[in-house]
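User: Can you help me understand a structure? I only have the sequence.
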Amino acid sequence: MKLKYLFLSLILIVALSCDKNDDDDYEFVQVATPQLMSKSAFRSSVKVAVPKTIEEPGKIYVYQDYIFVGDVDSGIHVIDNSNPESPKAIKFIEIPGNEDMSVKNGFLYADSATDLVVFDLSDINNVFIVERLEDVFNVYDYDIPIEADDVDFKGVDFEDQIVVGWTLTTERRKKVDDHQIDVVFNDVAVLSSGAESATGIGGSLARFQIVDNYLYAVGNYEMAIFNIQNLEKPVLTDTQYAGWNIETMFQAEGYLYLGSTNGMYIYDLVNPSSPEFVSEFTHWEGCDPVVVDGDYAYLTLRGGNLCGQLESILEVIDISDKANPKLAARYDLENPYGLGIKDNTLYVCDGTAGLKLFDRETPDDLKLINSLKDIQAKDVIPLENSLIMIGGNVIYQYEYLENNIGLISQFKLN
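Assistant: Let's start by predicting it. Here is the structure, written out as tokens:
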């Protein structure tokens, strides 16, 4: 009997040891599995509809008397702002897979997952699609959930299917060294400021910029360049590597400034069909929109989340020598997102901490002159006569006052 118990004990010890070693060799990972739709069904779902409740406010854009508000991955809401004290939603342009937009001379350019779609806005009561360039973007490079440790593309047919969402699951897997996402895209094509009348104005979170006869669009690591001399018939002229983890793009005085999670890239537009890399300013990892005026660039880094480090700051970069940008100043913030410039005032959206106003008469020595609290601030567009801001589910409009701004209206999006 004693031998029997001894034998059973030895089996149990061995089993437990094996389990322990087994546990040491395995880990739990977050796996993203794509939600799919056929390209034919996806493309046929674009339509212009009546106004509807916004589900997830995205980016904002202003063109003439209209405010365009993105509804993340589903389309664009059009708001008549001819009376800023009482803006009115007038239609919803349903565009699956949409994140960005730009407008020039009555034509709206918007991404729809892998495609670029063009709408005629000349009659706002009769908006219609005039062109679609298929498979000019690779949205998969920046749509993968940032929480994912790996991506399961097994069974996906990139020729005939579109990724319209993601499902995250936890899987127990054997450990591998230097584990990281390694996604193959099967050679799928990868891919401000301006006059308010001819070309619209986007916020600092934009990935689209129109400069003269070209539309520039950035994804995670590549830039697509479109010739839009014929506004309703854009032509993809080139795609090129642009950097890594690109999030935003701003244009000023013949240059493109790309904000990434680990720095800012500068490109010149001497040859507008092929922007040329000039330099890179590197900082620690964080979410990073950028705006530029004169010899200085201003960018925010949001920490304390999946973007990167714990600290959240505003950086002022001296770009007087474009080939050698240098840090000029740094300021602590709480939860920063977008920012904008009007004259000598820098407006910084500090998330749940509200909107902050800085005097930038001396750009490398900013002075906080006001702070609008008890509101959420995500992105801002300073226009000539008013300032438009989005935060939470509200569009705010302000008039300029000395060292301050005064509320004109609030428009709730849902």
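Now, to help you interpret it: The CA atoms of residues 153 and 393 lie 34 Å apart. The first helix runs from residue 2 to 24. Let me know which part you'd like to focus on.
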